[in-house]
Specification:
The chain is α+β, with helices and mostly antiparallel strands. It contains 6 helices and 11 strands. The protein folds into 2 domains: 76 residues, RNA 2'-phosphotransferase, Tpt1/KptA family, N-terminal domain (Arc Repressor Mutant, subunit A), CATH 1.10.10; 83 residues, Alpha-Beta Barrel (ADP-ribosylation fold).
């Protein structure tokens, strides 16, 4: 199959085209973020990223963050969350657990405690039920800091939460008063 390095490279490329810039290879996403697997493979191969359906299935199945999903007959693919494009993923509001977690880098903490978590160019703020996952996310940007999010109270106060196909909790924003820094 592929080396870990090749798998990571293709996964990052899929994130680019399925979450942010489908025009990079000349594909389009429908209103729910889906695109044709056949077209994706054709365009990727044309760009020198030579893969077939079996390799694509392997990447989707083994992606540690479960970022991608197929439809039932494997004819369509999309990213599960994290889009910077105007996509309606069709997730229904859900009641979150009392606590969720967010990982960030130490240099972001002061701004977060002042302004809260803001989705920025993405559709939602991403939260986790796992401190390990949150810490891994935070470590991508420097020394990680874990934030405790009072999701249950937010929900009671009228904030909506959604859960993606890969179990990432999503919300529009997290005001600062629902956030506590978890000290090591």
């Amino acid at each position: 199959m592929l080396s870990d390095k090749e798998t990571t490279h293709i996964s990052k490329f899929l994130s680019l085209v399925l979450r942010h810039k489908p025009e990079t290879i000349g594909i389009t996403l429908n209103e729910n973020g889906w695109t044709s697997v056949a077209l994706l493979l054709e365009k990727m191969n044309h760009e020198g990223k030579v893969i077939d359906l079996d390799i694509l299935k392997f990447i989707v199945e083994t992606n540690t963050k479960k970022r991608f999903a197929f439809n039932e007959d494997f004819s369509q693919i999309r990213a599960s969350q994290g889009h910077s494009l105007n996509i309606e993923l069709g997730y229904e509001p859900k009641q979150p657990p009392a606590l969720l977690f967010h990982g960030t880098a130490v240099q972001n903490v002061a701004a977060i405690l002042e302004h809260g978590l803001i989705k920025g160019k993405r559709h939602h703020v991403h939260l986790s039920t796992s401190t390990d996952t949150a810490k891994n996310v935070g470590s991508r940007y420097g020394k990680p800091v874990l934030l405790d999010i009072q999701a249950g109270q937010m929900h009671k106060d009228g904030y909506k939460f959604f859960i993606s196909e890969n179990n990432v909790w999503l919300t529009d924003n997290v005001p600062a008063h629902y956030i506590t820094v978890i000290e090591d």
